Amino acid sequence: MLQSDNDVGRILGPGYRPESIRVLLLTLDEGPGDDFDRWVTTDVSALIEQLRTSLSQLAGEGREPRSMAVVVRSAPATSPWQEAAMEATWQAVRGVVHSLTREFGSRRVRLNAVRAPSHNQTELKETLAFLASDGGAFVAGSSVDLGLVR
Amino acid sequence: MRALVTGAGGAIGAGIVRLLVERGDEVIAQDLRPDALAAIESAHVTPVVGDLLREEDRAQLAGLWRDAELTCVIAAHGVDGSGALVDLDPSFVQRVLSVNAATIPPLLGLVLPALKRTRGTFVVIASQAGLQAEPNNAAYCASKFAIVGWVKAIAPAMASEGVAVRALCPGCTKSPLLFDAQARFAEARGMPVEEFIDERREGIPVGRFAEVEETAAAALYLAAPGMARPVVFAATGGEVLY
Questions:
Q1: Rounded CA separation B217/B15 (Å)
Q2: What is the pLDDT of residues A4-35, one digit of tens each?
Q3: Model's pTM, two decimal places?
Q4: I need a surface site. Which of A78, A124, B104, B105 has the fewest CB within 10 A?
Q5: Distance from CA of A144 to the nearest CA of B (A)
Q6: Exposure of B59 by Cβ count < 10 A (0-12 exposed, 13-18 middle, 19+ buried)?
Q7: Is the ipTM above a cut-off of 0.85?
Q8: Which residue of B has its CA nearest to A101?
Q9: Per the CB < 8 Å rule, is A41 touching B94?
Q10: What are the tens digits of pLDDT across the range B110-158?
């Protein structure tokens, strides 16, 4: 399911400021039908459509360069097939972020992808804060996988 | 050996079918388009017209090997997904993701019992665009990145069941799909298509596009059952390094 700023604010709580970074949150949740089809076909299609309107809007706002992140969150997979579907979705998001970084450049909007387990709140907020900060200004088209082993 | 090739009416699919037949294999050749299948008619080819998006068409396919061995499946079907982001229509994006990516897991599910019996191989023809993204190609890149990621994730579990799942990532192969995509890229950049193609070709270390036979040969190399092969294999002329 794809969620935008209002829902993201509720999920990430105080401290999330949409004026500093625009977040599109893709939650890989259980639902009717096939996981792969629902996440890759339906949700990634919705993501591309949302980016189509958002990137043009942000780039045209004429303000300071903006940071935008697509966040993919999921609970642990319950089977190898579900794990593979989750990996496919994350890779599809990476493909979109990489393609659009090369298509649009990153002078007006820096687009990055973040993957976080659903229980991970603190590190996700810290990562988004970093991407929105001056220190993160050279990070564009990157994939940040917070699910890897520490 | 008996092989199933989907998208057998496309340039790469047909090339794969021809090489398999030359090698003496029996081929079940699936495609959406009956006229495209007619072009690869042979005593060793069983043509099947059907839509992989439709469950009833997939079920019909499964009936063809019920009593016969199936050693290898090569999923060569796919559609172009190129276009600038501003021009991408949601229904177009859904179709690209559905055809190029979402048809693959159910196809593996369909052939898995047969491939387990033969300890066979399942090869997906992905793309170099599934390894390195391209501008003006977000939908296609999403679909190919998805399937390369899926192959890498599912391969270990399938290997423990005796089935090798692999992905070929070809580069620019001379085909109608390639030239249609180049035309869209050229349009997105405001360039004449011939100039765009020349520039593209110059950027490939081997200095040319692949012949269909070369990409088909790479697919057959990867599809060899019982042989050690990479899970993901790039045949890109050096344009994308993997």
A1: 9
A2: 776 777 777 777 777 788 899 999 988 888 99
A3: 0.93
A4: A78
A5: 16
A6: exposed
A7: yes
A8: B135
A9: yes
A10: 999 999 999 999 999 999 999 999 999 999 999 999 999 999 999 999 9
